[in-house]
């Protein structure tokens, strides 16, 4: 009985600690984004600005940095750029048409938004970068979503490296791990549809890579949920990442 009481006490202590600190410090990265100044308004403009820096930015991210600086200083954007800054709804959308560079149908998009956390202590900021070709995401070096946790008290911004603490899985159940054997001209992979392991030829392996599912995210300008579209060889799968105040659940 005494042992049972001790276990229940430990579980209660853990539950209280989690309620007080829902975001594990081990899942955060010491921020390269610093903190907002005391006189700085806490809004989407401040968050986007804090998450940019003056270092050299590659390709699309460099184009966005230049466009954001133009916006902050009241300068005109390029003709192939669109920038939406919705302070009321805490949302930013940047879009650049790359038809003149990469050919028709290519587009780069960057979004940011944030949520007020139900613990009253934090805000969760999300940055989404994607490249589309004829409406379908094309995986690149810089695409995907990342999250930054803002502390209301310290005004510090820390990137979340372990997205699972907020219900985000970058793979969404699709295992892209593989091994190849040039001596037997085969590769060991997992079937994209069933998840079952299988051995295929290296010629089939190239097709397997081409059929790798890609993920398209759309952040909310209004509402609270993230739209997730999974593009597979069999078609599109639509999901909602539903915000519950601290993290997301998939529906």
Mean pLDDT: 88
**Secondary-structure class:** alpha+beta
Rg (C-alpha, Å): 22 Å
Taking the sheet with the most strands, its summary is:
8 strands, antiparallel
In percent, how much strand structure appears in the residues? Answer: 35-45%
How many distinct helices?
A: 5
Query: Helicity range of the residues?
Result: 10-25%
Tertiary shape: globular
Low-confidence stretches: 1-19
Question: What's the total count of β strands?
Answer: 15
Q: How would you spell out the order of helices and strands?
A: HEHHEEHEEEEEEEEHEEEE
Straight-line distance between termini:
41 Å
Describe the structure.
The protein has a domain of 142 residues. The chain has five helices and 15 strands. Strands 1, 2, 3, 4, 5, 6, 7 and 8 form an eight-stranded antiparallel β-sheet that branches. Strand 9 and strand 10 form a beta hairpin. The N terminus is likely disordered.
Q: What is this entry, summarized?
A:
With 251 residues, this protein is of the alpha+beta class. It has helices spanning 2-20, 44-50, 59-72, 99-102, 202-210, and strands spanning 28-29, 81-86, 91-97, 106-116, 122-133, 136-137, 144-151, 157-160, 179-181, 186-190, 197-201, 214-218, 226-232, 235-243, 248-250.
Give structural attributes.
single chain; 251 residues; 15 strands; 21% helix; globular
Give the helices and strands, then pairings.
Blueprint (H helix, E strand, L loop, with lengths): L1 H19 L7 E2 L14 H7 L8 H14 L8 E6 L4 E7 L1 H4 L3 E11 L5 E12 L2 E2 L6 E8 L5 E4 L18 E3 L4 E5 L6 E5 H9 L3 E5 L7 E7 L2 E9 L4 E3 L1
Antiparallel strand pairs: 1-8, 2-3, 3-4, 4-5, 5-6, 5-7, 7-8, 9-10, 10-11, 12-13, 13-14, 14-15
């Amino acid at each position: 009985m005494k042992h049972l009481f001790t276990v229940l006490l430990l579980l209660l202590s853990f539950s209280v600690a989690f309620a007080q600190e829902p975001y594990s410090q081990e899942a955060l990265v010491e921020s390269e984004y610093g903190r907002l100044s005391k006189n700085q308004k806490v809004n989407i403009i401040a968050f986007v600005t804090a998450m940019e820096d003056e270092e050299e930015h590659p390709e699309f991210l460099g184009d966005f940095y230049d466009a954001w600086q133009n916006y902050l200083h009241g300068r005109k954007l390029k003709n192939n750029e669109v920038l939406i800054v919705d302070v009321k709804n805490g949302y930013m959308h940047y879009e650049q048409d790359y038809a003149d560079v990469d050919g028709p149908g290519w587009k780069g998009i960057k979004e940011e938004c944030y949520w007020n956390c139900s613990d009253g202590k934090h805000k969760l900021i999300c940055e989404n970068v994607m490249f589309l070709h004829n409406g379908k995401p094309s995986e690149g070096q810089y695409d995907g979503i990342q999250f930054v946790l803002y502390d209301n008290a310290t005004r510090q911004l820390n990137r979340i490296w372990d997205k699972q603490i907020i219900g985000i899985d970058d793979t969404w159940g699709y295992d892209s791990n593989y091994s190849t054997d040039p001596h037997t001209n085969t590769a060991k992979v997992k079937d994209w549809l069933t998840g079952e392991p299988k051995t295929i030829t290296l010629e089939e392996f190239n097709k397997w890579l081409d059929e790798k599912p890609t993920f398209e995210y759309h952040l909310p300008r209004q509402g609270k949920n993230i739209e997730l579209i999974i593009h597979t060889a069999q078609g599109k799968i639509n999901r909602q990442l539903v915000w519950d105040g601290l993290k997301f659940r998939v529906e």
